[in-house]
Structure formats: structure tokens, C-alpha cells
Design goal:
20% strand; Nucleotidyltransferase, domain 5; elongated; alpha+beta; binds zinc ion; seven-stranded antiparallel β-sheet
Length: 422
């Protein structure tokens, strides 16, 4: 069984439905803020209440503030539960070495969704229209979904999130438990090192892999310029006016477009690696984040990489490919051929080993180390006599991000031909 979230664009059936939905989201926000500030931050050394203890206060609050009694009680419970959930996330980050603050009161624009847990909704995908489904939400009404991807047939719906994005568009995310029928991953003893790959997530290129392929970062400069233009224009409008609101949505649209483009790029790249290879090795970034301090350029790019690793793992499950995170300590310094530590500041782009003479691109050396650590970790049997790098072509094949986006793969046709004749 896996849990997966299916997201759809949604259209409220009427203005009234949209108004009720936003209204109820804001009621959830009031309850969240009240619970957080009045109840969850008790006397300094007082125990924090359990989720159930907070939920049990809801009937009292509803008697006190009658408008809270008019909305669907299940999602008020979920709003209170959000505090506990947020706290858990913060705790996890803290144990991983991040500097975290505490949960804060939320302003209207920061609280944009409502969660239905297990009941209070009715999903209908047999509407007689292609790519169309509806969800009927208790106390709110009906939303039309652009149903581009059907829900798994024998799945169980766990939760539904209804969200108003900053662009003003509505989305419905349906969380389903189902048996995905994914292909089995190959048995470790059947895996050949040639069918594995090590990946370095870099600054200059987005990924640099152990075969010498360097995929450029996605070029977002046009979007960034447009974003700046729209933001400048927003700053000249009168805050809160109709024009300001229209312009604010334009800014949100550009943000959304950038997110969509990045997601598309990551999915295509992850699809390529997990279908081409039987195992993909990548550094464990949570560990690396702890090894390097804040303000480090790598750390700043870390959010995007973590997202990519998540996508990579999901595609690994779907395509029957092992995705293994390896110990990152020393992967940039260590010589991939002889293991001697070679200190090099960030601007030195070549790894050149004074001990064994091995020379290659700095990021490729890191990828090769991820590769051999991954083989070790997964338990792939390989001959110790052949250093890993000699089984792989040398040199770097630079791949523009555009090719990944347009062809769905960073593979070069010419490269396959070359590989055969080599
Ligand atoms: Zn060496």
C-alpha cells in the first residue's frame, strides 16, 4: 500500500460556493490561531496539550463563538490538528540540525486551505463528461475538477485538501491509499555496476553524473525578469485596490509558472535516470546540511535538491529502480581512484590527484565517489581491481536543460552511437 496525493485544478460551481469555501477556510484560521495562542502556549513550563485535549475544547469554543458552530466540525478538528503536525515537522527539522523558530499566528493570506479527513466529501468521476469529476464538500458545495488523471480504482480516499492558491485558482488534492502494482526492483545480486549511476547535485550544473553527463540548470532568467517587472508594477499600485489585486495575481501567476517549469524538469530527469538505470546513488543531503554551515551556497540550493531527491525516489518506486542515499562526508575531497584526500576550494573546478594522477571535473569526481559508495551500500558485487572510473567514459558531455524539457531525456543520440564504437 502506498499513499499518494492526486492534485487537480478545481472550479467552484458558483460564486456562492467560492465565498463559503473561503469563509470557512478563514474560520479554520481563527480556530487555529486561537488554539495556538491561547491554549498551545501555556505557562512557560506547562505541558503542551495533546491533540485530543485541544480537540475536546472545540465544543466549548463553539458555544462561546456561535459562528464557529456553523461550519463543518471535522475540518475545525483538522485545523487544530495542524498545530500538532506543524510542531512535529519543526521537531524533526531541529533534530536534523536546522535552526527553527516556533509556530506563529497566521494572517489571512498565509492560511489558504481546508482539510476533510475521511468524511464530509463525495467524489464523483462518472459525470458523463471526459476529464471531468466533481467533489461535493459538506457545508460548502460542489467543485468541478479537471480530471486529467484518474484516481486508482481500488484506492481508499484518506483526506481531501481544498486550497485557494495565491493565484486565486482553486486546487483539490485527494490523498489516496492504494496498492500501486509497481514493478519489483532488481535483486541486488543481479545488478551490474554498469547499470548503476552516481549523481552529484551541483552549483554549476544541476546534476553531474558518474558517466560524465552534466545537465545544466534550467534557465529561468526570462521568468525572473518578468517577475521583477510585475513586482515593480505591483509596488506602484495602491495597496488593496482592485488594480493592486489584479497585479498581485499576475505576480502569483509568474511564481506558479516557474514552479511548474522546475517540477516538469525534475520529473523528466528523474524519469530518465530511474528507467535507464537499475540503481541511482545520490548524497544524503540531510547529513550534508549538518556538515556545512548556513550561508553556504550549496545549502541555499539545498531546497531544490531535496525536492529533486523526493521526485527521484518516487520515480524509483514506480520504475523499479533502487534510489540510495549515501554518506556525503568527504565525497568532494576524496580522490575517486585512490581515496587520498585532495583539498580544493570551491572555485577549483578540476580534481587533480597529486598521489595517483587522476584528473577529472571536480563534480564528476564527487559523482564517482557517490557511485562507489552506493555500490558498497547497496551491496552490488564489483571487482576491486578495476577502479570505477576506468569502466566509464572520460570527459564531460554537457547537456542543456532545454533538451531534457523538450525531449524528456538528457540522452544524446550521438552519444549512444559513440558509446557503441568506443
Ligand atoms: Zn588519486
Amino acid at each position: 500500500m502506498v499513499e499518494e496525493s492526486f492534485q487537480y485544478h478545481a472550479e467552484p460551481a458558483s460564486r456562492e460556493v467560492a465565498r463559503r469555501a473561503w469563509n470557512d477556510i478563514q474560520t479554520c484560521r481563527e480556530v487555529y490561531n486561537h488554539a495556538l495562542t491561547q491554549d498551545y502556549h501555556p505557562a512557560p513550563d506547562g505541558d503542551k496539550p495533546s491533540y485530543t485535549a485541544m480537540q475536546n475544547k472545540l465544543p466549548d469554543w463553539k458555544r462561546q463563538w456561535s459562528e464557529w458552530g456553523e461550519v463543518y466540525s471535522k475540518y475545525l478538528q483538522m485545523a487544530v490538528r495542524r498545530i500538532k503536525h506543524g510542531e512535529t515537522v519543526l521537531d524533526e527539522l531541529e533534530t536534523k540540525g536546522y535552526d527553527v523558530g516556533e509556530l506563529k499566528w497566521k494572517a489571512p493570506r498565509e492560511y489558504r486551505s481546508i482539510t476533510y479527513n475521511q468524511s464530509g466529501f463525495d467524489v464523483d468521476s462518472n459525470t458523463g463528461r471526459a476529464n471531468h469529476a466533481t467533489v461535493d464538500f459538506s457545508k460548502i458545495g460542489c467543485f468541478h475538477l479537471s480530471y486529467h488523471r484518474p484516481l486508482p480504482e481500488d484506492g481508499t480516499i484518506k483526506q481531501i485538501h481544498l486550497k485557494k492558491q495565491k493565484t486565486g485558482e482553486w486546487t483539490v488534492s485527494i490523498v489516496v491509499d492504494y496498492d500501486p502494482d509497481y514493478p519489483d526492483k532488481p535483486a541486488v545480486e543481479d545488478i551490474e555496476p554498469e547499470d548503476c549511476i552516481g549523481i552529484d547535485l551541483g552549483i554549476r550544473s544541476f546534476v553531474h553524473d558518474s558517466t560524465g553527463r552534466a545537465v545544466d540548470r534550467l534557465d529561468l532568467s526570462d521568468d525572473r525578469e518578468r517577475l521583477e517587472r510585475e513586482q515593480r508594477s505591483l509596488s506602484r499600485k495602491q495597496h488593496g485596490s482592485k488594480n493592486w489585486e489584479r497585479q498581485r495575481r499576475r505576480v502569483a501567476d509568474v511564481h506558479q509558472r516557474m514552479t511548474d517549469r522546475k517540477d516538469d524538469f525534475k520529473h523528466k530527469l528523474a524519469h530518465f535516470y530511474t528507467t535507464e538505470c537499475e540503481a541511482v546513488f545520490v548524497e544524503d543531503l540531510d547529513v550534508r546540511g549538518m556538515l556545512e554551515g548556513d550561508g553556504n551556497a550549496r545549502n541555499k540550493a539545498g531546497v531544490g535538491w531535496r525536492g529533486f531527491i523526493r521526485v527521484l525516489k518516487r520515480h524509483g518506486e514506480k520504475n523499479g529502480c533502487h534510489v540510495v542515499e549515501v554518506e556525503p562526508n568527504g565525497t568532494t575531497k576524496e580522490c575517486a581512484r585512490c581515496g587520498v584526500e585532495v583539498e580544493k576550494p570551491l572555485w577549483v573546478r578540476t580534481h587533480s590527484c597529486p598521489s595517483c594522477g587522476f584528473e577529472t571535473d571536480r563534480d564528476r569526481n564527487t559523482a564517482l565517489n557517490a557511485f562507489s559508495r552506493g555500490l558498497e551500500e547497496l551491496g552490488v558485487v564489483h571487482s576491486e581491481d578495476t577502479p570505477v572510473e576506468t569502466t566509464l567514459p572520460t570527459g564531460t558531455d554537457s547537456v542543456p536543460a532545454k533538451r531534457v524539457v523538450e525531449a524528456g531525456s538528457p540522452a544524446l543520440k550521438e552519444r549512444t552511437v559513440l558509446a557503441v564504437s568506443e
